[in-house]
Design brief:
Strand content: 15-25%
Structural class: alpha+beta
Largest sheet: 5 strands, antiparallel
CATH class: Alpha Beta
Radius of gyration: 15 Å
Number of domains: 1
Low-confidence stretches: 1-8, 12-35
Helix content: 25-40%
Number of helices: 3
CATH architecture: 2-Layer Sandwich
CATH superfamily: Histidine kinase-like ATPase, C-terminal domain
Mean pLDDT: 82
Strand order of the largest sheet: 3-4-5-7-6
Order of helices and strands: EEEHHEEHEE
Distance between the termini: 26 Å
């Protein structure tokens, strides 16, 4: 699963740029680093959530200047974000009761994607990974594309938030 680091998920330490480790309160009581650019999408009860979430993320990337991409590297970075959003939302659909919320934030160094759901399962890449077989590749893809990822659960609250962090393009 996630790598071990000396600071909480989302807090990238003392050199995290303008957003640092200050917190932004969310409705569920969890804290997130204050990001210069944040987007939220309520998915609770919505249909067609995977394309809806991907389109929402694409609009955020346009608003933040990632798209249209000026270089192949920037285009690849944007495509990675869209793929991670698709995989996390798909996992919530397949292994939980569907996603409740998509949260995307971007600062100078990291873009963070969070998908909240009411599921009790623990996402993990399948091992051994079988490249030639259909299905079961979602968290393996997330693990390969992201700087880090993990799961946050609030004590006494059903569900979880699966988060993933990708580096911003240079």
């Amino acid at each position: 699963m996630s790598t071990t680091r000396p600071y909480p998920p989302g807090d990238r330490g003392p050199d995290a740029g303008v957003c640092g480790a200050s917190g932004e309160a969310r409705g569920d009581g969890s804290a997130h680093p204050a990001a210069r650019q944040v987007r939220r999408l309520n998915l609770d009860g919505a249909s067609g959530v995977v394309p809806l979430a991907r389109d929402f993320a694409r609009q955020a990337l346009h608003a933040w200047g990632w798209l249209p991409a000026a270089t192949a590297d920037r285009r690849a970075a944007a495509e990675d974000v869209l793929l991670v959003v698709s995989e996390l939302v798909t996992n919530a659909c397949l292994h939980a009761e569907g996603p409740d919320e998509l949260w995307i934030a971007c600062d100078d160094k990291v873009l963070r994607v969070e998908v909240s759901d009411r599921g009790a399962g623990q996402p993990a890449p399948r091992t051994p990974h079988r490249a030639g077989r259909p299905g079961g590749h979602g968290m393996f893809i997330v693990q390969r594309l992201c700087l880090d990822w993990g799961v946050v659960r609030a004590p006494g609250v059903a569900g979880k938030t699966v988060w993933a962090e990708l580096g911003t393009p240079a």
